[in-house]
Amino acid sequence: MWRLLGALVCGPAQNTRLCTSLRKRCSGRPISRGRATIFALSSGQGKCGVAVIRTSGPASGPAVLGLTASQALPQPRVATLRLLQDPGSTEPLDRGLILWFPGPHSFTGEDCAEFHVHGGPAVVSAVLGALGSIPGLRPAEAGEFTKRAFQNGKLSLTEVEGLGDLIHAETEAQRRQALRQLQGELGQLCQGWGETLTTALAHLEAYIDFSEDDNIEEGVLEWVDTTVRGLREALLAHLQDARRGQRLRSGAQVVIAGPANAGKSSLINLLSRRPVAIVSPEPGTTRDVVESAVDIGGFPALLSDTAGLRDSPDLVEQEGVRRAQDRLAQADIVLALLDATDLASASSRHFLETVVTPGGPSTPGRRILLVLNKADLLPEGMQPRGPALPPHLLLSCKTEAGLEAVLASLKRELAAVCGDPTVGPPVLTRARHRHHLQSCCEALGRYEQSRARDLALAAEELRAARRQLGHLTGQAGAEDILEVIFRDFCIGK
Ligand SMILES: Nc1nc2c(ncn2[C@@H]2O[C@H](COP(=O)(O)OP(=O)(O)OP(=O)(O)O)[C@@H](O)[C@H]2O)c(=O)[nH]1
Ligand SMILES: [K+]
Ligand SMILES: [Mg+2]
After folding, report:
1. Does residue 365 share a domain with residue 264?
2. Mind giving me the DSSP string for 53-81?
3. Ligand 3 geometric centre to CA of 266 (Å)
4. Could you tell me which residues come within 8 angstroms of residue 147 by beta carbon, excluding any fewer than 6 positions away?
């Protein structure tokens, strides 16, 4: 090992104390060059109590020795207090904890080190500078630590995605879903399916090769058929998840819609706890769609405030209404808002008939929460006057009366749309997963069609199905997919 470390740290002309000591340990044996060692700040930027800088690659050990001016590496995986110094000038830089993770028992599978230093910008940049001055070390690119973990078989592709999602998770439910994926449940499920498919394919191929010799057991083909049918059913059942995992990952679309002046912009401001949209007594104030991402009871919601739905001669407002209709068509949940004192008006009635009434032409399978706003303007103890209404909630954006109940109902709707990430089989969290599972199912369907006509063709379909599962877990890795996934990672991860 010392030979390899020395190769990375010491060029032939290098004669620092570190290199001399490494050469001594390498006992003069020839030194070979290996893969670059990367380093980066892995904790957040800016002033903080502790900053974590890590390295991965064969020169991690020499980097620790160089920065600690020490003859021996710390005990593996034991936090050890050391004075850090510049390996060139020997100037002290900081006192910090060093963690040494010899490969393969590390996050990336390579030799890794962590320097826990004081989180001041000058300390961090001095330590990064010192690492950069050691030959064989270079700054890491975004996601490069994780990429090495994947390439060294430490994480499957779905686990990598789970890790990325965990870092980006902003709500409790997202965190739970990401953690489950990081723990490998989705990958294991796919691997299990892949193994079933491999067994079925092996039997089919054996049948093709040996059936004429009569060496093959009875009923092999029937067994393959049953297995493939069962697998296809399992995959189809898994695809019937109403995209809950994807919604939870990216946030559910909650569209606030209603007639002009119902208080839609007041509501998005109230739910966001900041003035994201302009509120005014003038009907037709909002034209562009205004978005705000919020956490409601642990679920991520992307709120959209839209233009009031009404006929207007104003061309700009007409465009706003068109955009509002577009948004409504994409909504997972519609927060339908009416002015409680204006229910009998033509615009309120029209909105109730076209958007709110269940089963109406524009409401296939969409969830609607009807809220009557401006309850503070109703005479004390009076119910709103107007047409018979479906179930609804009363709210005042002005006094915030009724807000708790609106939030509770919204959370219930979000839970239905996003699902509970902790129960049931692991969900598909990306369009990519769905695409490969769907393609796998299609190949299994084609197997059933070609099986009676051409066994070789049927076997080819099973191979195609297995390739799709391989793409899902990254075993059959397409570089372009990997690039897209790792691009989402930050430097230091
Ligand atoms: N009394 C009372 N007034 C409210 C309430 N909510 C909103 N308003 C007022 O109603 C008016 C319209 O509010 P907005 O939030 O701009 O309504 P909007 O639905 O976004 O209006 P448009 O964008 O023009 O369609 C403003 O003057 C608000 O202050 C409420 O709960 N009670
Ligand atoms: K308004
Ligand atoms: Mg508005």
Report:
1. yes
2. EEEESTTHHHHHHHHHT-SSPPPTT--EE
3. 7
4. 482, 486
pLDDT in tens, 423-475: 888 888 888 899 999 999 999 999 999 988 999 999 999 999 999 998 888 77
**Torsion angle, CA of 320/409/179/42, rounded to 10 degrees?**
50
In a domain, 282, yes or no: yes
Is 147 a member of any domain? Answer: no
Does residue 266's CB lie within 6 angstroms of at least one atom of ligand 1? yes
Query: Is the same domain home to 227 and 257?
Result: no
CATH code, domain carrying 351: 3.40.50.300
- Please check whether residues 200 and 308 belong to one and the same domain: no
Q: Let me know if residue 447 belongs to a domain.
A: yes
Q: Is the CB of 377 under 6 A from ligand 1?
A: yes
Measured CA to CA, the distance from residue 307 to residue 170 in angstroms comes to 28
CA of 324 to the centre of ligand 3 (A): 11
User: The pTM is what?
Assistant: 0.75
Domain span at 118: 2-140
From 123, 140, 157, the end of a domain falls on 140
- Considering the domain architecture, whether residues 403 and 271 belong to the same structural domain is answered as yes
| Ligand 1 touching residue 308 (CB < 6 A) | yes
Nearest of 367, 407, 374, 415 to residue 391 by alpha carbon: 367
Taking alpha carbons only, the member of 257, 256, 255 closest to residue 354 is 257
| Residues 112 and 106 sit within 8 Å (Cβ to Cβ) | yes
Q: Is residue 156 part of a domain?
A: no
Six token digits for residue 324: 């509002």
- State whether 109 and 190 are in the same domain: no
Give the three-class secondary structure for 422. Answer: coil
Instruction: Please provide the DSSP assignment of 255-296 as one string.
Output: EEE-STTSSHHHHHHHHHTS--S---SSTT---S-EEEEEEE
Instruction: Tell me what ipTM this predicted complex has.
Output: 0.99
Ligand 1 contacts CB of residue 426 (under 6 A): no
213 and 338 inside one domain: no
| Same domain, residue pair 104 and 212 | no
In this prediction, residue 14 carries a pLDDT of: 37
Are 354 and 231 within one domain?
A: no
**Comparing C-alpha atoms, which of 307, 327, 330, 331 is closest to residue 317?**
307
